[in-house]
Amino acid sequence: MVLLAVLIAPSLWRILYPWPYRDITMRHAERHDLDPFLVAAIIRVESSFRSNALSSQGARGLMQIMPTTGQWIAKQKGLQDYSEDSLFHPETNIMLGTWYLRNLKEQFDDNLVVALAAYNGGRGNVKDWLDEKIWSGQAADIADIPFPETRHYVWRVLRIHRVYRELYARRQ
Predict the structure, then answer these.
(1) I need a surface site. Which of 17, 106, 127, 146 has the fewest CB within 10 A?
(2) DSSP 33
(3) Residue 1: inside a domain, yes or no?
(4) Is residue 72 part of a domain?
(5) Number of domains in the chain
(6) Is 91 a residue of the active site?
(7) Distance between CA 84 and CA 140 in Å, rounded?
(8) Spatial CA neighbour of 96 closest among 76, 120, 124
(9) Over the stretch 32-55, which tens digit does the pLDDT of each residue have?
């Protein structure tokens, strides 16, 4: 139903689903072999495109990266000038977030649904769910994800991903 509405009135839907930081998102998504519409959906769900977003758990910036995760990513990438405050800078946040998402996809055999669950719920938790057969890792079984927040997160990202693809994949 939503996708039909997107087809009928795309200009209205672009107001409802804007895409700030599109150039940065496209560049880093391409660099990490990710779908830029997926990255846009993650940013929308994580921060509603607010670069200064700060969660109650301490996650920062557009892609809501925890400072310890940001520090780990910066070390993996060999970045010398990382600081927690740099997570509020859109270029840095999207660079680190897309690298991290690519890393999760590689760890979980390029399974996007599992990578999204790990992005939200933690790679250790997701690995445990899969190892203990609590969740199959399949899109059809998202309802079996034990953390309600993670289950809802995966559904939202996948739904919004379809909207962004439909709205922005075509030439404007």
Answers:
(1) 106
(2) T
(3) no
(4) yes
(5) 1
(6) no
(7) 37
(8) 76
(9) 999 999 999 999 999 999 999 999
